[in-house]
Design goal:
It is a single chain. Helix content is 73%, strand content 0%. It has helices at 24-28, 33-38, 41-63, 72-85, 87-119, 121-134, 143-150, 154-178, 182-190, 195-206, 208-233, 242-251, 255-283. α11 (208-233) runs parallel beside α12 and α12 packs antiparallel against α13. The termini are far apart.
Length: 293
């Protein structure tokens, strides 16, 4: 028999075309200027805030009662005067100092409880029981007891802030630990990690999105609890925070200063959300590819 006939594939002539590199400026010109600008988050949010300020100004002028609703311009003037005189800055400093103490203490206690909960069975029972008991309890409801136990000082404010931060943060962190894939857990066990090293090197990095979310929720709870507590608590040692500033000006019927204090509360909240936590997410969650956005 003759050997089978093998057919070689035809040789195709290859061509190489040198294309000029596309310039970024030419690609950018394909979209209209307005559309390119609208893609920036900060611009969209700035436009939204400007629209809200315009609605506020029109509603105040339509009401025509400065005692009930001052205009946006009057509030901005009162805010600027408070900043220039230093009065508003002093109140902000007092509030943020107390907030930082309670917030950091709440974070420390939350991580201790969650570390015990994922390490031991009794720790898990303690955390679940305490969260079920105290998480539904408003922090401001504990202020009378805090004043009775700790006196008329910043310790009472720190106490209610710790309560506001501790339980939502502990619950969110524990839920994040529970969602860690079993593969990562087994990898940590294979390396001989147990107890706190296992929590710090395996569970915390894997549950970081839930932890950051819990930190943001805890911050929001702590901030509004502090302002509400200062409204009730007043000033200690002759110094009061933003809540006391709002309450005092309300009693003196300086409504524009009341709105200026509320604007300071809102601006601080926006700054913490879009500067502090945004930077934290960029350097951790988004940098490590743990977020789709």
């Amino acid at each position: 028999m003759s050997a089978p006939l093998t057919l070689d594939p035809p040789i195709r002539q290859e061509f190489q075309y040198d294309l000029p590199p596309a310039e970024k400026a030419q690609l950018a010109r394909k979209l209209p200027l307005a559309q390119r600008l609208w893609q920036h988050d900060w611009l969209r949010k700035a436009v939204l805030l400007a629209l809200l300020a315009l609605v506020w100004e029109l509603a105040a002028r339509w009401t025509d009662n400065d005692l009930l609703l001052p205009t946006f311009v009057q509030t901005a003037r009162a805010f600027a005067e408070g900043i220039v005189s230093g009065e508003l800055l002093e109140k902000i400093e007092v509030s943020l100092t107390v907030l930082a103490q309670g917030y950091l203490a709440g974070i420390a206690l939350a991580f201790v409880l969650t570390a015990l909960a994922v390490s031991t069975r009794i720790g898990r029972d303690i955390l679940e029981t305490l969260v079920a008991m105290f998480n539904p309890l408003p922090a401001i409801a504990l202020l009378p007891l805090a004043m009775l136990w700790l006196g008329l000082g910043q310790a009472s404010l720190v106490f209610v802030i710790v309560h506001a931060v501790l339980w939502p943060l502990a619950l969110g962190t524990y839920a994040g630990f529970q969602a860690v894939p079993p593969t990562l857990r087994m990898a940590g066990r294979n390396y001989g990690l147990k107890g706190l090293p296992f929590v710090a090197q395996i569970l915390v990095p894997a549950a970081l999105p839930a932890i950051v979310s819990g930190l943001k929720i805890g911050w929001a709870f702590a901030w509004r609890t502090l302002i509400a507590a200062e409204l009730v608590f007043g000033a200690s040692s002759g110094r009061g925070g933003l809540g006391w500033y709002i309450f005092q000006n309300r009693n003196e019927l300086y409504t524009d200063k009341v709105f200026a204090g509320l604007a300071a509360v809102i601006l601080i909240g926006l700054a913490v959300e879009h500067v502090v936590f945004a930077a934290l997410e960029r350097t951790t969650v988004k940098r490590w590819g743990m977020s789709a956005t």
